[in-house]
Write a structure and sequence with these properties.
By secondary structure, the chain is mainly alpha-helical. It is built from 7 helices and no strands. The chain has helices spanning 2-6, 11-21, 28-42, 46-70, 94-113, 118-140, 146-174.
């Protein structure tokens, strides 16, 4: 799969794939999460901001625990073209877990809180596209195996379920009148 994706080698595609991955690296991933949580809080969505902060934290924690346990090496330059050598373990893809968990939770909030409009549709398509394409990006850049990405989509989906449960639990408990 990695080699097949890398055969699509064009300058535009390479920049697109690198740009998709860029927000998932530290420190920009943390800055982006803090900024978006701050916007929610300043807009009066207090519980949504707390739950989004939880969503931004749980994925990286799960990722770190699983990476430490599995300790799978990343693809190497003798097997595939690697755009950036990383020194952490490969399974699961932290980018995918973060995107599915955090951006997936934001997708859920947009879907449930905003009325149908072109703005809602725009945000749903943007967030959905980020989630759908990050896996391809990580494989294309040679930083993960396809199984790392598929496993991360599964783990990210499980964390998203926990995040939505946490949000609904807290909403009923702390904000019953909203």
């Amino acid at each position: 799969i990695t080699r097949a994706l890398q055969e699509l080698n064009s300058p535009f595609f390479s920049v697109l794939m690198s740009s998709l991955s860029w927000p998932g690296f530290a420190p920009q991933g943390y800055i982006l999460a803090i900024l978006l949580v701050g916007i929610l809080f300043a807009s009066g969505f207090r519980w949504e901001a707390v739950a989004s902060g939880f969503a931004a934290l749980i994925g990286p924690i799960v990722n770190l625990m699983v990476k430490s346990y599995v300790q799978r090496p990343r693809p190497t330059v003798d097997l595939v073209q690697v755009f950036r050598i990383l020194d952490s373990y490969s399974f699961p893809s932290g980018h995918v877990i973060f995107y599915v968990g955090f951006f997936g939770f934001l997708w859920f909030l947009v879907y449930t809180l905003l009325r149908r409009s072109w703005l809602r549709t725009f945000f749903l398509v943007l967030l959905g596209s980020l989630i759908a394409l990050i896996g391809l990006s990580r494989i294309y850049l040679g930083e993960h195996w396809a199984s790392d990405v598929l496993g991360a989509y599964l783990l990210g989906s499980l964390t998203l379920i926990v995040e939505i449960w946490f949000y609904r639990w807290g909403r009923k408990r702390f904000f019953p009148r909203d």
